[in-house]
Amino acid sequence: MARSIRVDDLPLAAPTPGPSAAGAAAPRGRSRWWRRFARNRGAVFGLGVFVATLLMAVFAGVLAPYDPVAQGVGPANQGPTWTHWAGTDSFGRDMLSRIIYGARIALVVGVLAVLLAMVIGVTLGLVAGYYGGWVDVVIMRVMDGLFAFPIIILAIAMMAVMGFGVKNVIIAIAVGFIAPFARVTRGDVLGVREEPYIEAARLAGVSGPAIIARHVLPNVLAPIIVQAALRVSGAIITESGLSFLGLGPPPPTPVWGSMIAEGRNFIVMAPHISTIPGIALMVTIVGLNLLGDGLRDTLDPRLKR
Asked: Bigger pLDDT: 33 or 254?
């Protein structure tokens, strides 16, 4: 005899989250991300250094007490005083003003060079990883050729051909950073392209470029962001090295590398000319590296605990 089914015996349907629950999901995710990031004191320090350097670069015209290229604003080779907090150089220029404006050059070169390298390198890595075959072989062999040269040597060679100037420095550094972005992106794409949702998109007739833009790129974006954050410090170091060798922006442009080089002849009588820009460069590089490490620990799913 069949047993009658009561309403109470039916399984209850899972409650559908309302608009308020859906809207609260994103803030909770961002809050969780920030809590994880904030637990890393080094990352918070790096973020503070980056924000301070960015503000100094943006508001250089307001913060700098003197014209950074004006000569004779004080006695030559004068140490730090109440009038010139970072002293003056051999031409009587205010060192603090030059350091503040040097932060603008460093960030512009570092950020723009990395952005240019990221756009080109990520595009090549997406194409190589998704399509594979001879396309992958050709692209990656070219990237291996770029890897064969140290970035500073490649940048020096390109600067010797293109000449001086901030724009040429950005291009020279960007070319050296294309290969790392392409390799990191390709490695992540190789793991993503075999996922079921990618195969489903292919069977649905979605074109390759559309699949790359809508499905592949969003799933490999986190390591690209981490790579970009870490490469900015490398770009600033490379720019400073080129400027130290006399291959950066021409004088009297206030650049940290050039300022360090100018102080070599006065290292005994006026050590502040080299040491203070060197300290500014060191703090910026350490801060950016700590920020990049913090982003990696926060965004990399393999490191989540």
From this structure: 254
Which residue in this structure is represented by tokens 């150089």? 89
81-139 pLDDT tens trace: 999 999 899 899 999 999 999 999 999 999 999 999 999 999 999 999 999 889 999 99
**Rounded to whole angstroms, how far apart are CA atoms 238 and 170?**
10
User: Tens of pLDDT along 256-278?
Assistant: 999 999 988 888 889 999 999 99
Angle value at C-alpha 55, between 51 and 58, nearest 5 degrees? 135
Q: How many residues does the chain have?
A: 305
Contact 89, 273 (CB under 8 A): yes
Two tokens at 120?
């080109």
